[in-house]
Design brief:
The radius of gyration is 16 Å and the shape is globular. It is built from 5 helices and 4 strands; from the N terminus they run E-E-H-H-H-H-E-H-E. It is an alpha+beta fold. Helix 4 crosses helix 5. Helices cover about 45% and strands about 15% of the residues.
Length: about 140
């Protein structure tokens, strides 16, 4: 779904139809260069040395916490506006590193407007890769 936003109506288990929005928050709702992050993944996978540098380089807490904090400063407003616009009941994240900032945004919105944006929005991580070992930033 890279770079796309689509909506469809799906039958739910209760017989009612559910509105399902497929949204790439990072590609469609963040400024440059953050909106380019999803495109770098296929490059990293094809170049194993680059992938290893990215994977192991982000593991130490003293690196990934400041990196995520700085990223949040630049994209929180746009990600928050996307959540306000779509008002999701369920968020499915396809990569754990890409969910940390949106989760932070949801927590911030909950603290500011407890009734408008519920923190209990369910967030699911769907692993599309065969993972032998979880990275520390995923936990």
């Amino acid at each position: 779904m890279e770079g796309q936003s689509t909506a469809t109506s799906q039958p739910g288990p209760d017989g009612d139809y559910w509105l399902v929005d497929y949204v790439d928050i990072w590609s469609n709702h963040t400024p440059y260069p953050f909106n380019q992050l999803p495109k770098t993944y296929s490059f990293m996978v094809r170049n194993s040395l680059m992938w290893r540098i990215g994977y192991y380089g982000q593991q130490p807490r003293f690196i990934h916490v400041p990196t995520q904090t700085v990223s949040s400063l630049f994209v929180s407003k746009q990600v928050g506006e996307a959540f306000q616009h779509y008002q999701p009941d369920l968020v499915v994240s396809v990569h754990p590193l890409m969910q940390l900032v949106p989760l932070r945004v949801l927590r911030q919105q909950e603290s500011r407007q407890p009734r408008h944006v519920p923190l209990w929005i369910r967030q699911v991580w769907a692993s599309l890769d065969a993972v032998v070992r979880q990275q520390r930033t995923w936990l």
